[in-house]
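Notebook, p. 212. Picked up where the previous page left off. The plan for this session was modest: take the two constructs that came back from the sequencing core last week, fold each one, and keep the raw output in the notebook itself so nobody has to go hunting through shared drives later. Recording the first one now, exactly as returned: residue sequence, then the structure token string.
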Amino acid sequence: MPELPEVEVVRRGLAAHAVGSTVRAVGVHHLRSVRRHAEGPTDLIGRLTGRRLLAADRRGKYLWLVLDPGDEALVVHLGMSGQMLVSSPDAPLEKHAHIVAALDNGTQLRFVDQRTFGGWALAPLIDDGGTAVPEPVAHIARDPLDPHFDSENVVSRIKGKHSEIKRVLLDQTVVSGIGNIYADEALWRAKIHGCRSADALTRPRLRALLNDVHAVMGEALAAGGTSFDSLYVNVNGQSGYFERSLAVYGRADEPCLRCGAAIRREKFMNRSSYFCPRCQRKR
């Protein structure tokens, strides 16, 4: 599933190539892609057509396009395989292009989703501490790249959790945007095992861990995100290349880049955790 850097890459692409345009027409080719819009596809098409895209915003892994006059947003759920592509109308239509919106700048905004876990929905914007967010996103915590991110408050919240530190990092109501890849990478940088109890870590170690989260996400963003396959692309269909810089994730049995010990893979919350048994000791 795309994490914060991958979603931010898409947001920036939409801001550059779609924002400022007006939706001229919308076609829904797969009903699952609009299932989150309770009023149905006809309502979504009618309310989107003729609307101008004012901004592309994001919180954590959640992405939305602000619609004029600024009180409503098109919330985009990327799910496991969703892509937002800005394409020429002459470009061949992708097999899994489930929603296509024609823009007045001569391009098409295509929602492509092979696994159909994602989709589009309209939602009102509400105020959340001085930031306008779609109502379904209001319960999501701010992410480490948010200019209003309060690291001391997050350290206190993490410190109050009697649970594995990796589980807490993945809790989007505590801190958003962190998924399996960047949790493992940040924990490796901080030399903390993901199964350590959050409340057993000192505040300085937690501050350092959040700094490592910020750093690894910033580096991933600069590299266009992490693309293990063709499902994770920017609006032009290009893959990111941060996979080449991963220190532990996906590197089971390969040597640790810091100490040389073999990286281990363990099951964690129905997924995999990667760590160095020497640098990240269990206690």
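Okay, moving on. Second construct, recorded in the same format:
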Amino acid sequence: MSTEATSRADRTAPAPGALLLCRAEPDSVAPVARLLRERMLLTRAGEGWSVLVPEDGPWRRGEEPVDRVLTGWATALAVGAPWPVLALWWDADRGGYTLAAGFRRPVGYIWLANGTPAGEDEAMRTFASRLDLDPVLDVQSLDHLARPDPAKDARARLRGLLAVLTRAGLDLPAGLAPGEPTDRLREVARDRPDARPVAGEGPQDAVRGGLEAVAGRRLTPWLPWSGDPKARTLALAQMAVGLPLAVWGLRHRSGGWLTAGALLLAHGTLGLSYDLTHPRD
């Protein structure tokens, strides 16, 4: 390839970017998103959906791959909320998604830059199941995304994924599209009339505020200050899972997974400390 052709290919290669789609209203997402302690913009993305647009990220400084960061962030958000989180990410070589829901193992799929599928078909079916998508129509569309198609690159594949989710109420604002660089996504989000900034706050206040905001009557017994035995069980489970996650993230210098582990430890510590300092009658 000539120098001119190489330069032209470099200009057309998408810069790294990412979006976090939450299946919840912005008012429920905001307090939980603060737990990440990252600067983001939050706006509505359809009926029952919200989107978080990172204002910056370690991938821009070459510190960590965008897919690893987003997987950790999605996991951290999902363990602190009763709704699923879908992370979309892309760089010059690949594009893909990670779906996190509660304490279940995240599921994801990857396409090479030219659109070549590089994931497992079962991931698509798990994706559909966890989002309660149509088991026939939507699964057929997802299966098609996992088949070779020389006419579709990674960006087109991600747009196809979003098209499937429109039938589940997703309506991503114009301009917030896969393949766009972080700066462009931030500019588009800022222009939205309902956009709001999300910034970090004190760890304990954020944890408590986030739990109160997302918890409904069904989840109340699991809250640290509920006085229910279930709260202690959950706190111990969170610490048991959070510690190895945090250690793994520290050893591998993965800020995303370190955040997920730290969040679980914060939840568990808060629950256990409250249980010990407020004994039941």
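Notes on construct two before I forget. The mean pLDDT is 80.
Flagging for discussion at group meeting.
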